[in-house]
Amino acid sequence: MAGPLRHQSSSTISLSNSFPSLRETTEMARLSSLIYKFHRFVDDDLVCPMINADYSAYGVECHWYSHRGGNASATESSTQVMIVSSKTYVAVVFAGTDDLESSLTDVHLLQTPFGDTNHTLPNHADVKVHAGFNQAVFSDGLYDAVCCKLEQLYESQATWMRRTKKKLYVTGHSLGAANSALTAVALTLHSSQYFPNTITSINFGCPRIGNAAYKDYIHNNPLIRSLSIWRVVLGWDLVARLPELYYHAGHTIQLYETVKNDTWSSYWWPSNSSTAPVAYYRHYGDSSLNLAGVPFGWYAMPYMWLPGALNSHRMSKYYAAMSEMQQDDWVKAFVPLSNGSAVIIDDDEWKNPDDLSFIDKQ
Prior knowledge:
Layout: H1 22-34, H2 47-54, E1 61-68, E2 79-85, E3 89-94, H3 100-105, E4 111-113, E5 128-130, H4 131-138, H5 142-156, H6 158-164, E6 167-173, H7 175-190, E7 199-204, H8 212-220, E8 227-234, E9 251-255, H9 263-268, E10 278-280, H10 306-311, H11 315-323
């Protein structure tokens, strides 16, 4: 059996796969949690001064905040985003819908071409994404505003940022996770002279975003070789398995909450006593690289423990899990194929298995 892949950069790889550090990932979880504190604010201009005054311990400076398309009584149709920076990075942070009912209704819209009239994928009309996620990013001039603010920030500090190699992250949770991935794609294609070479999306509880053509575009198009997408999934988070018949793009980092002992969960959780996270290459794996995708049943199992699966989706749970993570346990390699096992087959049809018979098929 071949060894695990570590930071491979061969010409066969288009999507960047340089693993984010535990510190980076925890920091993005902290920012994704922080933005929820301002979900009910009605005056955008108050948020950055409050962050800069009251959250100085975070070590970040807030440069811009926007809450568009909704208000305190219509949060499910709004997009909440901020731009912050530290000594080492600039981050675009999207909020999602932290109440679970909204999280589930967010995933029931049709597919639409990526972007808008000003931001498209030339010669890729077949690439479709979730209409609601796409609208959240590209409606009301939001993406243009984000891009403009980033260019202004990088241009104003261009010499210093180039010297320190300040990174650019796009992050978020739930609906905000989907927004972060789409924004990272658009920013990569935008290719501003001021942006760093690699744009990284580290997101939490991200639902499936697009069709198969979208997945293939993200994974294989050389135009976005510098894009890095890392989808962190906690336990049985159900939202990360929705909507059905859509696809994930990017690499999956699976966090485990506890070690289980019953029949179902002993199949799902690692066979040893470790609860260390694992990483799945491009989510679906690649047999040519001897890399595994998520296990068969990954989509189906949360339906067996629905209350726990919903509870796992909360951003507070993600941040707690990341905060407790030990450096020695953090992912350093992708899970390899073993014993001739196959790359994952999308198991939407198994969403409601009536018994344990499919385990015998493995």
